What does this fold into?
Amino acid sequence: MNILDTIVAHKLKEVEERRKQISILGLEKRSNFSMPVRTLSASLIRADGSGIIAEFKRKSPSKGFIKQNADVKEITGAYTEFGAACLSVLTDIEFFGGGDEDLLTARKNDIPILRKDFVVDEYQIVEAKSLGADVILLIAACLKPDQVKRFSGLAASLGMEAILELHSEDELEHICDEVKIVGVNNRDLKTFKVDIERSLKMAEKIPNDKIKIAESGINTVDDILIFRNNGFKGFLIGEHFMKQSDTGLYFKNFVEELKSRI
It folds into this structure.
């Protein structure tokens, strides 16, 4: 199996175990479930915003630990203070070294939060809401079009938004009315190789009424400017920020440079 298949197989087993530990009714009783939802789409289209979805990620399956002992409170606080449009928090334990506690800690920040995980079941969407997430990620490579429609519809019914992540043109059929935000990942989830041209090639194929996000392989302000000129409103960046010795300070300087050039 490739990396994505391995992750999905593990995730299906993980969800069944979680369902045994706490029911959907139990999730709905958590205090965060009733919190007001912060809207990512509104944050991304702000004229004075950075459009950056700043990610907290300790490790990846392809590179191992990026910053093993990273302080989620400190880093997400800096992301928020210095102009992130949204926080992305990895909650996958096995492959990315994250966890629910990271999201619960990040929730102390008053900006939209994406729960970054591999959604394969409706249970995870209710679970995301119960953790305080505003946005979920739906990866076309591991879902069927009818699942995307159903999952994004459930998210909307809970007041949340969904990002549909695409990797190739044959996944364009996953786009549906329920999805407002479409991300194109420059990283092939089956090989984990990065091709930054992927987003640019697919940009014209995505309907104009969708908010477009470029994901992975973004390392410079110049990269963002190229994507902005091709109609993208959001830019998900994690590894590049996390690998810096002082992630918060680096992010501050990065956003200041970006804003000075737009």
Notes: The chain has eleven helices and ten strands. The beta strands are 52-56, 59-60, 64-65, 86-90, 113-116, 135-139, 161-166, 181-185, 211-215, 232-237. The chain has a mean pLDDT of 94.
